[in-house]
Amino acid sequence: MGDTRRKVILLVEDNPDDVSLTLRAFRKSNLGIHVDVATDGAEALEYLFKTGAYTIDNNGELPALVLLDLKLPKLDGVEVLQHLRADERTRLLPVVILTSSREQEDLIGCYSHGANSYIRKPVDFDRFSSVVQQLGIYWLELNESPI
Hints:
By secondary structure, this protein is an alpha/beta fold.
């Protein structure tokens, strides 16, 4: 493969149990993925645009993937997605919606605002773990990213 990009994912999730499950699933995958966590939409934008608490991070490197929940404090997932797609620096950044929402309106809204994928979180840990591992393999190993 020869791809030397950092295998970094930004997980934007406010539920500590879902954060824990996701981190555990990535550790179990043995893909060497580093996961940074933002617990609300505003923190996610600070992380991605290197503002606020993240100003000191001057490397400017974006994660390879954003896993974005929809129901977040401060700014919801759709608002975060809109900010990402409106800015030239993050317009092409792969964003996967990882949510428990079963609302058709959420699904359509996310795709219409530029989500690359929409995945409903499985309730069963083994299934959830499998989905997370497949996400890592696809987006960090197989997918050719423009950024």
